Each structure stands twice: as structure tokens, then as C-alpha cells.
């Protein structure tokens, strides 16, 4: 392919990426060093916005909450996605139907999915989980106002929405494992667990790394599910980093856009730090 043809084909993608990614990123970094109010030019304030963010206990609480939820949810997603993929992979005739049903939570927008998931725990909508708890004579659980119960509710909603993605990608990995490899393991006397641990899991290590990478990015940006499921997120300490940035930057009419931009830059740094090991592992897997 000639250089001119290559440039002609690549140019639209480069222009779109520059317009949608680079320009907003540069503006965010620029605003993070300014005091910016909506509709007004910014005033340079140096590192004041970063100093305000890093000394705010609410910011630290949001970071801890976001990181803990991310680690817990991603662990469940990878393990649960693997187990679910193995079960689905063993199906024959009903596999397309089961796959279609399992993918429903993933295609529903996060805000709507969170609302639907919350109905299971809301007595005003006949919450079936509350009915089961009452049937066994257990005390009522305040899912929407109690700190830890609400954390479990939010984590469950995120897992419910993202588990189909993890399952689908890992299922594709399972189907790519050579049948000769599995047959050799059986001939050598390896049981089911041994085959999964020593043969299948190492064979799809790159796929599992990809699922982990995408899941971390999704959960670190936790926001949609908190709106319907955690109406008192700030008061009970269940405020995610993205929700905190939204509350500080926009709820007062856009008076602290500079502070919000500084927090966004810190969030990008946190995402890079958490993703770096998996990016290196995925790149190494691709080269091999």
C-alpha cells in the first residue's frame, strides 16, 4: 500500500481520536491548574486544586470506597465468569437460548439496570429478597440506607450487569483451547479440576487478563448504579470517586470546574496505576 493511500485511510480515525480524546484531555489538564466557573474564563491558581482535592477527607473516602469495590467486584467477575462460562460451554441445544437470557443485564443501560436490580430489594415493589428474609424470620435489612448492606447491594448490581461480558469473553477463550490438549490431559489421568487449573486456565491467561482489564476500567467509573441504589451515598460513605467528582464539579452550577478537572486527572492516574500490571501482561501475552 502506498504511503498516500495509507494516510488517506488512517486520517479519519486520527482526526476523530484527536477531536474526541486528545482535545478534552488537554483541556481537562489545563483547567486543573485554573479556577474555572461555568461560562467564565479560567484564572491560573497553580496546584491549589490538587491541594484541595488531596486534603479533602471526602476525596480520600471516595478513593478507598472505589478501590475496595473494584477489587472485590472484579475478583467475583473473573471467578464467576469462568465458572459460568464452563457451565454454558457444557450445554448443547439450549446454549443459544441461555446465552441470550444471560446477556440481557449487559445490554441494559447501567442506570436502568440498577433500578431494575433494586426492585428485588425494595419492599415497595414487592422485593422478593426481603420476602425470603422475612420467611426465614430474619431481621429486616435496610438495603438503601445501611452502609454495608448498601455496599453489598451496589456491588451485586455491578456484578449482575458485567458478569455476562466476563462470561462471554471467557467462553470464547474456552472454545479456542485445542481439543488435542484436553485429550492429552485426560490420557495423563488429570481430573476435571486439575485440567482446568493446569491446562485450560494457563491457555486462556490472555483472555482472563483482558476481562480483568476491561472490568477494572468499568468498575472504577462506578456512577450509574449509585443513583437509584444509594440515594444517601454521601451520608453513609458509599460515594464513588466519579460520583464525588460530579457532586463537586456540577451540582453547584459548575462553580468548581477547575477542582473537578484536577480530580479527573487524579482519577486517570489511579486508573493507569491499577491497569499497568494487566496492560504489561496483555502486551507480553500478545508478543508471545
Automatic annotation (TrEMBL):
The keyword Membrane applies. Residues 63-280 form the ABC transmembrane type-1 domain. The chain crosses the membrane at residues 7-26, 59-85, 97-121, 152-175, 195-214, 258-279. It comes from the Bacteria. GO terms for biological process: transmembrane transport. Belongs to the binding-protein-dependent transport system permease family. This is Carbohydrate ABC transporter membrane protein 1 (CUT1 family). It comes from Pseudokineococcus lusitanus. The lineage of its organism: Bacteria, Bacillati, Actinomycetota, Actinomycetes, Kineosporiales.
